[in-house]
Amino acid sequence: MKRPVTILGAGLVGSLLGIILKKKGHDVTIYERRPDMRSASISAGKSINLATSARGWKALEMAGLKDEIMDLAIPMYGRFLHLQGGGTAFQPYSKNNEAIFSVSRGELNKRLMTLAERQGVKILFEHKAADVNVHDNIIKFELADHSVKTVQADLLFGADGAFSALYEAYRHRSRVNCDQTYLDYAYKELTILPGKNNEWLMEKNALHIWPRGNFMLIALPNTDKTFTCTLFLPYEGAVSFDKLHTETDVSVFFDQYFPDAKVLMPDLLKDFFTNPTSALVTKHISTWHYGNKSALIGDAAHAIVPFYGQGMNAGFEDCTVLWQLMEHYEDAWDAILRHYEQKRKPNGDAVAALALLNFVEMRNKVSDPVFLERKKIEKELGKLFPDKFVSVYEMVSFSHIPYDTAISCIEAQDKLLARIMEEGDYFANAANSGYGQVVERLVNEYHAAVQQLDFGDEA
Questions:
Q1: What are the distances in angstroms from CA 96 to CA 101, 140, 380, 432?
Q2: CA 193 to chain centre
Q3: Which of 43, 65, 85, 412 has its CA 20 to 30 A from that of 121?
Q4: Would strands 127-133 and 138-143 be described as parallel, antiparallel, or unpaired?
Q5: How much is the pLDDT for 46?
Q6: Is 48 left (phi over 0), alpha (psi -120 to 50) or beta?
Q7: What's this model's pTM, rounded to 2 decimal places?
Q8: Total count of domains within the chain
């Protein structure tokens, strides 16, 4: 017997989950705290464009939605670096010319909500979950008119983001450990507009980065030929949001650190002082489900910082795993939710750590000559030894290898690349057969060291 499902949150993961559960025969109702963004005026400024990669596309394809979404996506084949002093450089993401895809969070969310409703999912807007009784699955909602509505759920999913009401209810249960960690950094959204003749003003098939050591600006393309830019900057310090109080402060700051971006931002000052300065948080919780009654999914289970572009992808992969468990266990929700937590929690913890590590890489390593050389060697090793070496970045972005496996390979890959680079100039020595034998031996040693890890698909 199919159980009626209640989902908190009609965001990306909640909408996709609703579609999946409806396809499995469940009656699904989603409660969303915000007005319907398809008809209401929702304030901008906190979106950060999405970078859809293999895990996200797999979930969409599994749900039969990939073709419905592809027109919103722009392929990005690498990082386009805007170096201090005016130089530029391009770093391809993949040895096989693979891409991650820029997608507007708002446009994707609107599309998924519409597709969910077409499938028969019911979405109720302006229902803010104020309290959840985990034991009895009773939710109290605050409505737009300040009235209170009580709902008895049968099977409940918390897909309501980093500040999930269900997360909070779990947090207040005994023997549930949780933590949240804020970076000393914040972000602010800005915009690069099209040119006078509606042309792209920068390379459209790349993720643009202005790395500045302790801070950075990024820009991702949109289908309307704008770029959504995000400034990541410390809250406090010599160079920080705390120092940018006036229009003159902001103008001088951009003249000094991002002059090539500033000339493309006619609305810079308006955007800077209109859009919020938003926090960056990582959250962990030890328990992701409660019996056969409820579970956390997406950011509600594993809120992470955005620096690997995996937040949505990880949430969509949660949906893929749930689908596969439903295929295996049918309607045995005790088993489904227990195995869902067992499979996904280690990977949620791992992708959170990977995102923090990639922040350091993006802001101050991507312009370092030694780091650039290492990246080139990684790609050559992947071509020469495809069965033995896959870079961590490619594991995360272009495969379904568990995040937990990818992060477990970092130390071994660091050791391998350091030893190869100690042997001298890789590309100058590549034609030397003796050097090639040394490299092959080192790769074989690396492969042996990581053999015990799980390189099978997570989903």
A1: 15, 51, 11, 25
A2: 24
A3: 43
A4: antiparallel
A5: 54
A6: left
A7: 0.95
A8: 2
Last residue of a domain, one of 325, 360, 395: 360
Q: What is the pLDDT of residue 75?
A: 98
In a domain, 239, yes or no: no
- Taking the C-alpha atoms of residue 53 and residue 51, their distance in angstroms, rounded to an integer, is 6
User: Rounded to 5, what percent of the chain is helix, strand, coil?
Assistant: 40, 20, 35
One-letter identity of residue 185: Y
Instruction: Name the token pair of 35.
Output: 């007005």
Q: Torsions phi, psi of 331, nearest 5? A: -105, 20
Helices and strands of the chain, counted as H and E runs: 17, 19
Give the C-alpha separation, 81 to 361, whole Å: 13
Distance CA 375, CA 365 (A): 11
3-state secondary structure of 138: strand
> What is the pLDDT confidence band of residue 48, given thresholds at 50, 70 and 90?
confident
- At a CB cut-off of 8 Å and minimum separation 6, what does 317 contact? 55, 56, 58, 59, 344, 347, 400, 458, 459
Do 292 and 375 belong together in one domain? no
pLDDT tens for residues 168-225? 999 998 789 999 999 999 999 999 999 999 999 999 999 999 999 999 999 999 999 9
Contacts of 73 (CB under 8 A, 6+ apart): 52, 101, 102, 103
Of 340, 360, 380, the one marking the end of a domain is 360
Q: CA distances (Å), 358 to each of 267, 308, 310, 399, in order?
A: 29, 6, 11, 17
Residues 6+ apart with CB under 8 A from 142: 127, 128, 130, 148
Output DSSP code: residue 72. G
Rounded to 5°, the CA angle 112-301-137 comes to 85
When the pLDDT of each residue in the chain is averaged and rounded to a whole number, the result is 95
In a domain, 419, yes or no: yes
DSSP line for 83-95? -TTS-EEEEES-T
**Do 409 and 316 have their domain in common?**
no
